[in-house]
Fold:
Amino acid sequence: MRIGALREGFEGEARVAVTPSSAGHLMKLGHEVFVEAGAGARAGFSDDSYRAAGVTVVPSAAELIRSVDVVAKVRQPSEAEIGQMQPGQTLISFFYPAQNSELLAQAKEQGITAIAMDMVPRISRAQKMDALSSMANIAGYRAVIEAANNFGRFFTGQVTAAGKVPPAKVLVVGAGVAGLAAIGTAVSLGAQVYAFDVRPEVAEQIESMGAEFVFLDFQEAQDGAATGGYAAPSSPEFREKQLEKFRELAPQMDVVITTALIPGRDAPKLWTRDMVEAMKPGSVIVDLAAERGGNCELTIPDERHVTENDVSIIGYTDFPSRMGAQASELYGNNVRHFLADLTPGKDGVIVHNMEDDVIRGATVTHDGDVTWPPPPPKVAAIAAQKPKEKPKELTPEEKRAAEVAAFRAQTKSQVTLLVVGAILMLLVGMFAPASFLSHFIVFVLSVFIGFQVIWNVSHSLHTPLMAITNAISSIIIVGALLQIGSGSWLVVLLAALSVLMAGVNIFGGFMVTRRMLAMYRKKERPAAQAKTGATTGA
Structure:
């Protein structure tokens, strides 16, 4: 099949659907790759770089659409682009079918197969094709960079000779992919990060990244599995509790990054005018939901403006395009992974299997029919985790009872072992010869004394491996000492050698440990040297 990437016509869009590196992977699948002239220029990919990768460069969009079987784009298609496509062709791009019903109807009438990269289900197998997550990751990172560029202080706290600088307090609203990327970036810059999400299962993720989860004391909880991993609309009661919490936090925060989006809906208003007015002068709000109306009530899409109380509100909608090369590489990989699933034989033949959860979920029109919305995937995206029960603190009486029970159990175990050992020794004494019995008693005493002596040494003084080797050496020494008084010169010689070698192992091990510990001790300077140094410093 022939696959072609169009140049994006949207103003300010720097991304391209196929990069020279992703084109190489597509050709390995048996496809021919085409690009419109200048398609990758704004992302830093020249036409010559495409030609060097074996890609055919076509002078115009109309000629490319006529020449290929699959058209790949980043932004949603225009009516003119869909109108030029022929029945049987495939379109791969962001589509947003819930907001573009007219485009959906036009794609159906044209008889094309439209694959919406924004509709890829969020299941484990589809992560490599999840373009929304790829772009959200970039947006979250870039949001922190833009906030830092507009914030008048350090993000990290500093103590200098000129004074102390407190760390910036950053609140991230929404802990999806963009939110987690923003958390990671802000934490790495040294900020004091707080994060809020309506899904309780993300609390562990937030805390594992070094941020503090903003807990909302409310009974309502969402299961992200029911919504494909996205947040769902909240009840009015929950919303009021949420806004109350944000009003409490607003005066304390230096930077607020909002990322809350609900598929198929306008962005919920979470940061109201009164919250903005309560923020400190010089604070920054970055609204990643600006394209869908914004989470902040005062957000102006595609603009940065400053309020009367000197709060900067950033409503850019092109965060991924501000990192065009990186965004194109990630999106290009998403597209080629999707095409790999569409080309199971790696023979350049596309097989549109509508029984596949990923392919079915992303396909919005096929065979002259609208296939959106898709049925729920057979595999749930995520599942809500049950909160871990905190271990119950024992009362002094319960602790005492537990200790007594443990002592009794230990005593019972020891008595049982002694009784069993005595019976075994009795049986051995009844049937074994006297010479064997004397050697056996020496062996048992050596084992018992050796382990008891070494195992009572503090664990801070030796490693577990050293403890075992020293215990074995102690067994050897005890056994050898008991044998030195033997009448045979050979036994006496072997016993003396055993004592010598085991002693070297034990005492040598402690000497090596001492030298290792000395490496980490601070060397004390002589008194005269210290005095001279102090005088010189003064």
Residues 18 and 332 are 5 Å apart (CA to CA). Confidence is low (pLDDT under 50) at residues 223-227, 527-538. The two ends are 81 Å apart (CA to CA).
